[in-house]
Every structure is written in structure tokens, then in C-alpha cells.
Amino acid sequence: MSDISKSSKIRSAVLGAAGYSGAELCALLSANPYFELSYAFASGGRDPEPLASLYPRFARQVDILVEPWQDSLIPELDIEVAFLALPHEASEEVAPKLLAKGIKVFDLSGAFRLKQPELYPQYYGYAHQHPELLEQAVYSLMEWQTEPLGDLVSVPGCYPTACSLALLPVLKAGLVAADCIPVISATSGVSGAGRKASLTTSFCEVGLNAYGFFKHRHRPEIEQNLGRKVVFTPHLGNFKRGILATCVVNLKPGVSAEQVKSAFSQAYTGKPLIRFTDKSPNVADVAGTPFCDLYWQQDGEQLVIMSAIDNLLKGAAAQAMQAANVRFGKPETAGLFAGAVA
Ligand SMILES: NC(=O)C1=CN([C@@H]2O[C@H](COP(=O)(O)OP(=O)(O)OC[C@H]3O[C@@H](n4cnc5c(N)ncnc54)[C@H](OP(=O)(O)O)[C@@H]3O)[C@@H](O)[C@H]2O)C=CC1
Ligand SMILES: CC(=O)N[C@@H](CCC(=O)OP(=O)(O)O)C(=O)O
């Protein structure tokens, strides 16, 4: 039993709670002793329905009614923080309205991730309506976070989380050849595409295929994080959840195995959600967990780094929870080890 009284908990709402990442966030908030899940919302056209009816695995674990959202509810909301697990354009539209009411916003979509508004038409297919918020938003890749999180937090994308956590240690340590363009191939489970029905993600259609060559919206996000161009090729695999990323770089001549190891341990010593594995990581070992598993192999100047995360947890809901814990001065991993079931 927690000794934190209900009244001292941080009151929160999840928008997009009927979707895959929003439902996970509802579970994490319910398991977090410092937060209260006060409201859960889906899109406007639905009837109210318990989350446990939408997702029976949450029965007796998450007790919240998912209600239809409309902006006219905003003045009545008695919350300190809203988590947006919405399509990008819906997040972009509602975030300023919540911020205007003094509600802190953690956005899981891509709406506020890129600093350059001119990239939105090219990579997201729409012009950004609130470029001033791109300046304000703080990007919460927490293992590399130095800036304080403000009122608008932009939670990193799933593929960018896996790839950036893999590549930043050697890049920041100055071990990668100046002219190297990292090559990243990453495979996601089908939950990465969200819960809505679509032909490309239906059971009989999904095998293993690449998509989004050079044009995927996560390419500029990864490049923004790493400070250099990348070749990024996402793949869709026939499993439910998880991302396995294979990242290949050329090292500077003479970089030793010891230097590589030291770069990783310096980056991640004391970081509770990073695990180094002794063999290639497996999505099965991270599914349902908030961890990022990392492994590398070096052959002279060539380095292959493998990274595995659960796209819905470290790639979305758990990363948002981690950031909110830090933002509100709570233990970084509060609520993270109990909420999810694979
Ligand atoms: N899936 C993943 O692995 C990851 C997803 N993300 C991002 O998180 C966000 C949510 O993704 P995901 O959980 O997969 O999405 P889903 O498609 O599974 O769920 C989307 C949710 O948003 C609700 N919604 C849609 N439009 C509106 C609207 N205009 N107003 C209010 N609610 C609305 C839907 O309601 P209803 O159910 O009623 O239609 C649903 O509850 C996306 O931006 C995605 O890019 C980030 C990282 C990883
Ligand atoms: C398998 C699949 O379709 N994955 C999605 C990425 C997951 C996601 O929702 O992207 P964000 O992290 O940017 O929110 C895609 O490629 O568009």
C-alpha cells in the first residue's frame, strides 16, 4: 500500500486512451503511486466504455471509464497534466488549448518533435500550425536529457528511441568517422501502426517487409538527435510488439574495443532503463517491459549496434511516464515495472 494520499497525487488525463499506447499509459499511471489517472478519453464519436472492456487484460488492474473527447470539456478538467496519445494533427490542435488552461502536456505523437517547421510538410504531409510551440517543446529522450522539461514535453518516436539510444554513446564520445553516415535497419511489430484496421497491418498480410525508404518521418527526427545524416529503413514484422534496430557505423581508425565499451558504460552507468546484453537482444525479452536492451560487435573499424525496445513502452508510454516522473520530481522509474503485461 502506498502512503501517498489520493489528494496529494498528480491528477492526470490520457487522450487517445482507447489506442494502443494510450491504454498502456493508463495502466502505467494507475500503477504509479504519485499519479492519479483522473480521466481517459477516446475520440468524440464513441459511447463511454470501461478500459477493461476495450482491453480485457487490464481487468482488475485499471479501473477507468474511457469517455468521448470534445474540446468543450477543457474548462471543466481538474488536472495538472494531460498525456496525448493521439494522431499528430489532433495533438497539434489540442495541445495549445490545454496549455492555455495551465495544463502541462506530454505529447506522444510527432506533432512537436522536429525543431524545423519546414520539415512537417515533407515528412508529415501537413504544414505545422503552431511553429512557436516547436521552440517551446522539450524533447524527452531522458537518458540524454540535460535541459529541464517545461510545460510541453515531446516524447520521442519509437524508432528514434531505439536508434538514438544505440548510436549516441559512440557519436558523443567522438569515436565515429567524420564522413560516416550511420545505416539503420529496424523492424517493428504491428502495434506500431496503432489499433485502427488497415489492409497492410492485417494478420494475413503481414510477413516481413521494408517500407518508407528515405521518406519515413523518423528519419529527420533521428538526424536531429544524432546531428548527422542517416540511412534509415524501417521494416514491419509479424509480431505484436517490439522494435529491433541494427545500426552500422564506421569508427575512426584505431578505435579500440575498450574505447567502445567505455563509451557505452560512461553513457549509461546509473541509467535504470538501459540493459547491456551478452548476446543479440531479442524483442521477446523487452516486450512488456520499459527497458532498452543494447549489444554491439566490432570488427576493426566496423561497429554493429543492436537495440531492442517495446515500441509501446520505452518507445511510447513508459518513456512518457519516465519523463513525467522526472518532470514532477518523482523517482524516474516510479510505476514502470508493474503496469504492463506482454
Ligand atoms: N503505436 C506505437 O508503437 C507508437 C505510437 N506513437 C504515437 O502515439 C500516438 C497514438 O498512437 P497509437 O496508440 O498507436 O494510436 P491508435 O490508433 O492505437 O489510437 C489512437 C487514439 O486516438 C484517438 N483519437 C483519434 N483521433 C482523435 C481526435 N481527433 N480526438 C480525440 N481522440 C482521437 C482514438 O480514438 P478512437 O479509438 O475512438 O478512434 C484512439 O483512442 C500517435 O501519434 C503515434 O504516432 C508513438 C510511439 C509508438
Ligand atoms: C509499424 C509502424 O507502422 N510503425 C509506425 C511508427 C510508430 C509510430 O506510431 O510512430 P511515432 O513513434 O512517430 O509516433 C510507422 O512506421 O509509421
What does this structure look like?
The chain is of the alpha/beta class. It has helices at 20-31, 51-54, 88-100, 119-124, 131-136, 158-172, 218-226, 257-268, 283-286, 313-327; strands at residues 10-15, 35-42, 49-50, 65-68, 81-84, 104-107, 138-139, 152-154, 183-188, 208-210, 231-237, 243-250, 274-276, 292-299, 302-309. The strands form two sheets. It has an eight-stranded mixed beta sheet, with helices on both faces. Helix 6 packs parallel to helix 7 (218-226). It is globular, with a radius of gyration of 20 Å. The model has no long low-confidence stretch (mean pLDDT 96). The structure holds NADPH dihydro-nicotinamide-adenine-dinucleotide phosphate and N-acetyl-L-glutamyl 5-phosphate. The site of NADPH dihydro-nicotinamide-adenine-dinucleotide phosphate has 31 residues, from helix 1, helix 3 and helix 10.
Ordered list of secondary-structure elements with their pairings:
Elements: E1 10-15, H1 20-31, E2 35-42, E3 49-50, H2 51-54, E4 65-68, E5 81-84, H3 88-100, E6 104-107, H4 119-124, H5 131-136, E7 138-139, E8 152-154, H6 158-172, E9 183-188, E10 208-210, H7 218-226, E11 231-237, E12 243-250, H8 257-268, E13 274-276, H9 283-286, E14 292-299, E15 302-309, H10 313-327
Parallel strand pairs: 1-2, 1-5, 2-4, 5-6, 6-8, 7-8, 9-11, 13-14
Antiparallel strand pairs: 3-4, 9-12, 10-11, 12-15, 14-15
This protein binds NADPH dihydro-nicotinamide-adenine-dinucleotide phosphate and N-acetyl-L-glutamyl 5-phosphate.
- The end-to-end span amounts to 24 Å
Number of helices: 10
CATH topology name of the largest domain? Rossmann fold
Uncertain runs with pLDDT below 50, 5 residues or more?
none
Biggest β-sheet: strands ordered side by side in the sheet: 3-4-2-1-5-6-8-7
Q: Structural class given helices, strands, pairing?
A: alpha/beta
Bound compounds, each kind once, are: NADPH dihydro-nicotinamide-adenine-dinucleotide phosphate, N-acetyl-L-glutamyl 5-phosphate
Q: Could you state the oligomeric state of the chains shown?
A: single chain
Strand content is: 15-25%
- Top CATH class of the largest domain: Alpha Beta
| DSSP, total strands | 15
CATH superfamily annotation of the largest domain: NAD(P)-binding Rossmann-like Domain
Overall average residue pLDDT: 96
